Amino acid sequence: MGEDRHRSVANLIGADAETLALWWLRLKGYRLLARRYRAPGGEIDLIVKRGHAIVAVEVKARATLEAACTAITPRQVQRIGVAFAHFRAIRRLDERFTYRCDGVFIAPRRWPRHVQDVGELG
User: Fold this and answer.
1) Contact 56, 44 (CB under 8 A)
2) Intervals of the chain under pLDDT 70
């Protein structure tokens, strides 16, 4: 039961962090295309668009911004790439767009940090 409770708390923190990240990106002119996009082999926290850029966004919330900024692993980027390829195929997106993987990092009492190109989508 303790593990289930821990998972529930983590999911709530993650959902709150994603909401904050989404508002931060909206203030920067991004428009939401998908939230918590799941595909076989991967998941993407947010998919947003601004101009001709379509961006897969990984959101990390930690006790410090430094810890959040180092929390994205190469394996996670690979899984995001798999899910993003599925999203592109379903939406029939083509070369008119540029694609990238960004991170938004969240820590208590700090402004969110948006970092572009945290990994190659493959």
Assistant:
1) yes
2) 1-14, 122
Q: What does the pLDDT read at residue 120?
A: 87
What backbone torsions phi and psi does residue 89 show, to the nearest 5 degrees? -70, -45
In this prediction the pTM is 0.88
- Please tell me the distance from the alpha carbon of residue 73 to that of residue 59, in angstroms, as a whole number: 12
Residue 66 dihedral angles phi and psi, to the nearest 5°:
-60, -45
d(CA 44, CA 58): 7
* Six token digits for residue 79: 């899984």
Strands 53-61 and 42-50: antiparallel
CA dist 73 and 65 (Å) reads 16
